[in-house]
Recover the amino acids of this structure.
């Protein structure tokens, strides 16, 4: 077995034999699966005819959608197999893009949304012991705490015919690097590490490994990669997972299309850590990165649904990938989600209301009949009934106060800037100022999330040149650390 399969996906690009196909007449006998440069799953299937005339007749005929070689629908289901290694392939998400004819062959090509392959021996698959989930992108600067050691060796047999036979293991080198760490969630251990280009043969990658095949791993995986994305300031694109047996052989693989056309953009984006965790920070402050990540993960998983953190993380990731002019919009949406979730949670004192609902209803019920008779305008009456709701701008202030997050002049300015950006802006933009204020807004969002997760140590202030670390109770400093921005 190629050891690289333990760390990264190896997609068999050999031609496979089609066993069964739905949505397409069965003249196609062979199919090949591959990934393009953006890691989208692709396929090519071919049909071969006895001569050029027969091939041209099938290819050019359009009298019926059921003409052999013509797709009946865009989505095609098929099963195929490969002899070496003995794998079965299943997909129900083939999207036909184009077909062409050359000589005696018709080639149909398109995109796969997902692909499932497994070793064609059921007892072998029952021995599955661990799962590795794979993602495009990496953060090489993260303070990984554990080394990955790869020992290269081979077997040699030395024989003297009719006299002796000896086996020997020959070492041909080894490689070790700190590129992984281990975490824990609800008692389930996992490892995260990055994968070098020499193994992926393309982009750097990241893996998450569980030493089990428990279905709950998928539930934990979402929280793990979402938090890791937040901590490293990077977006990680899932491309599938592989299940291995106790002999470290892959028994089942699930491939997923990246669905992206901008992988280079995602890979090349700088990551902004919300907290200071460089290697020098870890050593100088004696931080155990594995304990820190596990504690944050436990809180993230606990509050994920209550505060819609998955959606929040998606908007933060989106902000990192769009042009500067648009970066504040998704951050603003993330703040709105956090704010509304807070007021809907048990943690909120006022629930986003000036008075509690029972008190307000008791007061308004004394006057509502007369008001309806005098005003006779449903729109105005509805406004009166909703008047107990705290106003939009005030809601942000109350939210930050209830959360216990101190704010200063910089926070107030960037929240006003948010309104200008969201509701439109005409005139010449000052991009330097917009960049600084966007970074300040990003820092405010980071502080809010960290506070929700119960983190009370240092954060990084991206509103100040040099990106200093501050205590959580300290407000943003602004570019020159003078509360101006």
């Amino acid at each position: 077995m190629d050891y690289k399969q333990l760390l990264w996906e190896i997609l068999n690009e050999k031609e496979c034999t089609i066993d069964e196909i739905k949505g397409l007449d069965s003249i196609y006998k062979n199919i090949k699966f591959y990934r393009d440069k953006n890691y989208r799953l692709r396929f090519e299937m071919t049909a071969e005819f006895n001569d050029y005339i027969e091939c041209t007749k099938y290819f050019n005929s359009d009298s019926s959608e059921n003409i052999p070689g013509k797709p009946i629908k865009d989505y095609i289901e098929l099963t195929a197999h490969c002899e070496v290694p003995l794998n079965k392939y299943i997909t129900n998400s083939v999207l036909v893009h184009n077909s062409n004819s050359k000589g005696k062959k018709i080639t149909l090509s398109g995109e796969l949304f997902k692909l499932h392959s497994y070793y064609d021996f059921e007892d072998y698959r029952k021995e599955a012991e661990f799962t590795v989930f794979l993602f495009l992108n990496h953060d090489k600067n993260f303070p990984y705490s554990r080394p990955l050691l790869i020992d290269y060796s081979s077997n040699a047999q030395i024989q003297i015919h009719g006299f002796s036979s000896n086996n020997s293991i020959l070492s041909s080198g080894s490689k070790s690097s700190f590129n992984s760490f281990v975490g824990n969630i609800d008692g389930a251990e996992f490892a995260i590490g990055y994968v070098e280009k020499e193994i992926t043969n393309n982009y750097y990658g990241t893996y998450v490994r569980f030493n089990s095949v428990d279905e709950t791993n998928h539930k934990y995986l979402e929280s793990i990669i979402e938090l890791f994305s937040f901590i490293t300031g990077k977006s990680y694109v899932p491309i599938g997972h592989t299940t291995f047996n106790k002999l470290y052989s892959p028994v089942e693989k699930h491939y997923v299309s990246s669905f992206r056309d901008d992988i280079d953009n995602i890979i090349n984006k700088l990551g902004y850590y919300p907290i200071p965790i460089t290697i020098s920070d870890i050593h100088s402050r004696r931080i155990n990165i594995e304990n820190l990540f596990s504690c944050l993960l436990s809180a993230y998983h606990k509050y994920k649904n209550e505060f819609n953190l998955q959606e929040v993380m998606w908007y933060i990731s989106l902000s990192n990938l769009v042009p500067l002019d648009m970066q504040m919009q998704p951050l603003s949406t993330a703040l709105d989600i956090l704010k509304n979730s807070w007021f809907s949670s048990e943690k909120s004192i006022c629930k986003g209301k000036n008075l509690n609902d029972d008190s307000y209803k008791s007061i308004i019920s004394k006057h509502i009949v007369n008001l309806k008779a005098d005003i006779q305008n449903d729109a105005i009456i509805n406004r009166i009934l909703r008047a107990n709701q705290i106003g939009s701008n005030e809601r942000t202030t109350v939210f930050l106060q209830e959360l216990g997050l101190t704010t200063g002049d910089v926070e107030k300015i960037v929240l006003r800037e948010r309104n200008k950006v969201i509701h439109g802006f005409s005139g010449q933009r000052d991009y330097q100022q917009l960049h600084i204020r966007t970074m300040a807004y990003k820092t405010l969002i980071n502080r809010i999330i960290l506070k929700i997760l119960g983190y009370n140590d240092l954060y990084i202030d991206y509103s100040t040149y040099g990106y200093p670390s501050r205590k959580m109770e300290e407000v943003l400093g602004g570019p020159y650390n003078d509360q101006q921005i």
